[in-house]
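Hi all, posting the design record for the shared folder.

TITLE: backbone redesign
STEP: 1 of 1
STRUCTURE INPUT:
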């Protein structure tokens, strides 16, 4: 199902989400192409999770348009988003500790009319994990005995079984050490190289700059710039915290206050 590399898959314009009196998203623009990693960064409460949930069909936008491969769509349920080709790996991973890797990979894929037996599932699991160069010792290992990085790998592999055009990862390296983080970042690159569009939420600017092709900053529910992995750490932090909302307008606001 993956698209041609570079094809514009997802296009959001003017997307807003209101929760009662709270404006969680306002006038959001976002483009995601096939074969690119778009990092979504922003401070706590910036609207990242809300945006991911809109794209996952969990929340419906109050305003705005979402285009999928050039056509307007309504992501009115998680099933609709999944069927269209938007997969989400939420932060809690939702893996079953007591089940093995194969069982976890195929769990919850009820929308796919597969009739695979255990042997076929095991072969398919190995093939996919090998393709992703994943370091999983055995697909019959229970999840409980895997490391954080290996669990993340299983969760990402599971979402790839439905061959989504876009995969969204919410803080995939948040709980990981240095080596496991590197493993997951490599995996993200391999997912991108397979032609999937990746939306990566992360608070870690080093991770973001290591893998992202574009870095979209959200601040207080609004777009606050699109950057590249060549953007300096300071510049990114400034966009995230609002220090870059140009100092001229802040100086003018101060002058106005003084004049009153
Ligand atoms: N279901 C909800 N009902 C009411 N307000 C909500 C709801 N979900 C999110 N919000 C509000 O929307 C704003 C954006 O929240 P969101 O969780 O999207 O931020 P975030 O960027 O994911 O933050 P964090 O980095 O802390 O996860 C916040 O002010 C939050 O309180
Ligand atoms: Mg969040």
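Okay, here is what came back for every position:
SEQUENCE:
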């Amino acid at each position: 199902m993956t698209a041609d590399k570079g094809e514009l898959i997802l296009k959001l314009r003017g997307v807003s989400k209101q929760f009662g009196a709270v404006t969680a998203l306002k006038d959001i623009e976002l483009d995601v192409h096939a074969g690119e990693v778009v990092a979504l960064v922003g401070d706590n409460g910036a609207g990242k999770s809300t945006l991911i949930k809109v794209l996952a069909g969990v929340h419906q936008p109050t305003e705005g348009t979402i285009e999928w491969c050039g056509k307007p769509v309504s992501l009115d349920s998680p099933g609709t988003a999944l069927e269209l080709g938007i997969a989400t790996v939420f932060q809690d991973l939702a893996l079953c500790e007591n089940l093995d890797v194969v069982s976890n990979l195929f769990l919850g894929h009820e929308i796919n009319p597969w009739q695979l037996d255990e042997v076929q599932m095991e072969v398919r699991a190995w093939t996919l994990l090998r393709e992703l160069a994943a370091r999983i010792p055995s697909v019959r290992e229970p999840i409980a005995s895997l490391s954080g990085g290996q669990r993340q790998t299983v969760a990402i592999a599971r979402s790839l079984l439905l061959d989504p055009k876009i995969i969204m990862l919410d803080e995939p390296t948040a709980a990981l050490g240095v080596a496991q983080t590197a493993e997951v970042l490599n995996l993200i690159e391999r997912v991108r190289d397979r032609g999937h569009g990746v939306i990566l939420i992360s608070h870690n600017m080093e991770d973001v700059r290591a893998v992202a092709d574009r870095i979209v900053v959200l601040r207080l529910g609004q777009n606050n710039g699109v950057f590249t992995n060549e953007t300096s750490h300071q510049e990114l932090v400034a966009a995230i915290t609002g220090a870059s909302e140009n100092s001229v307008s802040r100086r003018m606001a101060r002058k106005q206050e003084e004049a009153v």
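COMMENT: The first helix runs from residue 48 to 55.
Let me know if anyone wants the other runs.
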